Every structure is written in C-alpha cells, then in structure tokens.
Amino acid sequence: MSRIGKKIILLPTNLSTQFDGQTITVKGPKGNLSRTLPEGITLEINDGTILVRTIGNTKKANQLHGLSRTLINNMIEGVSTGFSKKLQIQGVGYRSQIDNNNLILSVGYSHVVTIKPPQNIEIKVENNTNITVLGIDKEVVGQVASTIRSIRPPEPYKGKGIRYQGEVVRRKAGKAGKGK
Fold first, then answer.
1. In b/e form, how buried is each residue of 100-110, taking b as 16+ CB within 10 angstroms?
2. Nearest to 112 by CA among 124, 123, 104, 101
3. How far is C-alpha 124 from the geometric centre of its chain's CA atoms?
4. pLDDT category of residue 161 using cuts at 50, 70 and 90
5. What residue ranges define each of the domains in the chain, with the CATH number in brackets?
C-alpha cells in the first residue's frame, strides 16, 4: 500500500467538495476544478478530511493510489492558494511583454513569438525579463511554463535563453584555440 496514498487530506474551511460516481469537484475562492478518478480508487469524505482508498487489491489500483491522492491534494491547494512558475530571460536584446493577455517574446529570432495562454492561466511580466505563470491547475501551469521555455531553451556556451528561476545551466568551455 502506498505511503503517500494513506495520508489524510485536510480540507480548508472555505472549500466545498462533491464526490459522485468517480468524479470529484472542488470549489474554492480561486475557482473550481473537477477530475475523474481511475477505476479501483474511491474516496471517503468526512468532516474536513478526505481519505483515498483502493477497491480490491489489484496491481493497477495500488499503482494509482498515491497518484490519485496527490492529484486531489493539488486540486485543493490550487483552488485555495493557486500555483505559480517563474521564468527568466537572459540574453542581449531578449525581452518579453504582454499584449491583450498574450505573451510576446523577442528572443533572437527574425520574428516575435506570440503565446496565447489557455483559459484560467494568467501570465505576468516584470522588467521585460521575468515571466510569472499563475493558475489553479498545477499541471496546466507547468505545461504553459514548459512551452514558454521551449521557445528558446538556455544554451550551454553563453547561457542565453529562457530558464526557470533558480535553474542552473551547466556551462561549457568555448573553442580551445587554434592548434599548433
């Protein structure tokens, strides 16, 4: 049995949860999320707590036990506080801006790159080089941040590109000089 799956999820007082069939819906101050649980997983919702249980002792249910608990916990955390990912742009002439909720990147290509964020995702830009992706769904926030980073990933020689805040890019030495 999963150690993570056995942990009890505590519900904040400002949230409401609803579980019918295999679908759980969580409503909070930031919005609402719903997810369909896989077969073999069920929930026990008591006053202020949720316990994730497996039905039967199948291998598939045991594999999905901890994952289901983590996904439900992320839903609860998302609708109560939200998630954010921060990115940094490094490079001479590299910059970003927001125009009509679209992110416009100027990162060394002959054209600007425009990214339209999905629904419930907000993108903020500070100082033209710091990008923050905000939202209630952790999976979507991470995917949007990954998409932005993939436009111009950091290169190992000068470190130019878009990177996550705090990401360490291993640098390589340049050419070794002319041979004798």
1. eeebebebeee
2. 104
3. 15
4. very high
5. 3-80 (3.90.930.12), 83-164 (3.90.930.12)
Q: Which residues, 6+ apart, have CB-to-CB distance to 17 below 8 Å? A: 11, 24, 25, 26, 27, 45, 50, 76
Q: Which of 97, 93, 161, 164 is nearest to 126 (CA)?
A: 97
Closest CA to 35 of 104, 109, 129, 136: 136
Decide: helix, strand or coil at residue 166. coil
How many whole angstroms separate alpha carbon 153 and alpha carbon 155? 6
pLDDT of residue 90: 92
- Per-residue pLDDT band for 2 (boundaries 50, 70, 90) equals confident
Beta strands in 7-120 (DSSP E): 9-10, 16-20, 23-28, 31-36, 41-46, 49-54, 83-90, 95-99, 102-106, 113-115
Identity at 58, one-letter amino acid code: T
| Average pLDDT for 139-149 | 94
Radius of gyration of the chain (CA): 21
Query: Whose CA is closest to 159, among 167, 23, 96?
Result: 167
